[in-house]
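Final report, results section. Input specification for complex C-07:
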Amino acid sequence: MEKGLVCLVLHAHLPYVRHPEGEEYLEERWLYEGITETYVPILQMLEKLVGEDINFRITISLSPPLISMLRDELVMKKYKHHLESLIELAALEVERTRNMPEFNYTARLYEQRYRSIYRTVFDENGGNLLNNFRKLLSSGRAELITSCATHGYLPLIGTQDEIVRAQVAVGIELFRQVFGQKPRGIWLPECGYKPGHDYILREFGLRYFFTDTHGVMYASRRPKYGVYAPIYCPSGVAAFGRDTETSKQVWSSREGYPGDPDYREFYRDIGYDLDYEYIKGFLPHGIRVDTGLKYYRITGKTEHKEPYQPDWADEKAALHAGNFMFNRQHQLEYLAELMDRKPLIVAPYDAELFGHWWFEGPDFLNYFFRKSAYDQNSYRLVTPSEYLEMYPVNQVSVPNASSWGHKGYNEVWLEKSNEWIYRHLHKAGERMINMVNENRGAHGLKARALNQAARELLLAQSSDWAFIMKSGTMVDYAIRRTKSHLHNFTRLFYAVCEDRYDEPWLHQLESDNNIFPEMNYQVFGSEYRGTVA
Amino acid sequence: MTVVIFTTILIVAAVLTAVLILRANQSRKDPIPRRMFAMETSEELRPSEQRQGTHMMPPELPDSYNDTRLVLMVRDPEWLFAYWEINDGHWENLVRQHGEAAARRDNITLRVFEMSDQMGYFDINVGGLARDWHIRVGKSQTPFYCQLGLKYYQDFIPLAVSNTVVTPRDSLSSLYDEEWMLVTDHEQKLLKRLGEFPLDLTSPFMFRKEG
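Structure output:
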């Protein structure tokens, strides 16, 4: 009989970077890299586990912008083109390195990998990766959840309940359309929680969300089990707090696994390393960027890098998975002595860490799942829903307002680089709510304008823009996106106020910023309430 | 002799130019700090052939929405953030009503109220140029609201009142749940195991900070 439980959560999110106006957009590469390096390798790995009937559990949050891009024909067509070019580059690399044994083996692996990704995405699924997620969901091994419509950071954009409700409603509705069921839990963007928002989650039948460690630890009443059991908000929605040990072991590049010398070095990419004339055909507009083909291992802390040895890295991933398992066993055996129920370790991560940043991350997960199934009896992997079925009675306490961003509260999204956005976002939110309240039964052009206004506002609210402004790279893009969505919104607002519409412009906007095709603007109305059914 | 020197200079110049060109084309091997998804720095962006407008910065957003409003937001357990605007018509009325000496923009003051047991407040003279302010309150788990007004000698003429916010907690609650007690030494062990909360364990920051 197991001593404790482990809940592994991956949150997959990317901002909505669909650009129909150009063939190659640098920002679209975020998605391409996400698909090639993270989503498909993880899906392939999980499908293999299901195929081999290995018992595991994982909780995956797919953000609505990510779902929207994965089901967008144009985006996936562009990705196909990108992947074809990547396969071509990998094949060229196999040829180029044929007399360089230290690189050739790795080059061959890249080529095989890209071809296998192509088969998974396009040959087997016709470019619809969501099919794979559906299959995974039906396997019963993965619990899929979602996040807010455009990953809006609720504690700062949600000055009015209507805004929070709309962000939640649109996310849940998209999930329902794609997966045929409502999600049981939600990933609050950046784990940003503000007391009271849980009442809105309850309206939609959501049973749980996640907070950072201090979200639960600093709750209004001291949590009896620390973060090793969820607490119930007074609304009855459960808050699962993040474990600190599992975070450090993976996130920290100093004490964490991803910094191991045998793992692949992220910052040595042939997009930068190789002769410009050779590589330029594979670079967007000839600009040096990461291609994904990297031949070196971390080696050490200096600039000196040794060639990557895939087999060593694979062995290290297995070793680290074993260590991770061993640590969980000890952690849970210790905690079980102190608690009168099975302790739970909640380990949430950004999905993109696995595969993109930490190339061997999917292998690590693979070994961890396999070892957990066969090499130990101390713990069992569970999903949050399974936990709540097992332990339906939990302590009631109000979680602390918190986030998992730097310093633990709202500062990442509210500091000198990005504080200017809020007066505009709040004003637009207020206008949207009033506009909807005054136009409940709109139809025709007015309804289209209202729906597009809702899309533009949601897109402007995406937490990614404030984050990018703070992070200092690609800042212009984030500012441009914020301003252009707000301008579009304002123009639509005046159009609705005056009941005069520029149809060709509206049509263009509907086609360019086409997120949430089934948008119902009424979700912003003051009388709108979520329905549990 | 002159010819020799001239030729030498030409050769040196040619070699230098070649080296410079080669270096310009050479790969860039220094690790560049990049955010998730390997974005290059904005300096590298070049004009593209894409549809006009998408790469162009849209016009500025309006300076004002012609409102008089004051909005208070929470940054962390110690800091709040307020932004405001004062409608021109409202301002003119103030000048008419209270005179130019009182209704001077230099007198604009943010009065921050702490809604705790001893209801108190403090003033920040924000003047006429500021439109927002980071306010250090240094007190977690406390409700605050503020007023924007004109401070003129002992008078305070309010212009706008904010919403109320509560600063988050930054420590364990001292409120125990009678029905959910853990024997004290068990609790200490549990807390010890948990260790300190790092409050920043998310990918891009961790990698940048320590990488």
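Helices of chain B lie at 2-25, 88-102, 184-194, 203-210. Residues 19-53, 203-211 of chain B have pLDDT under 50 and may be disordered. This concludes the modelling results for the funded period.
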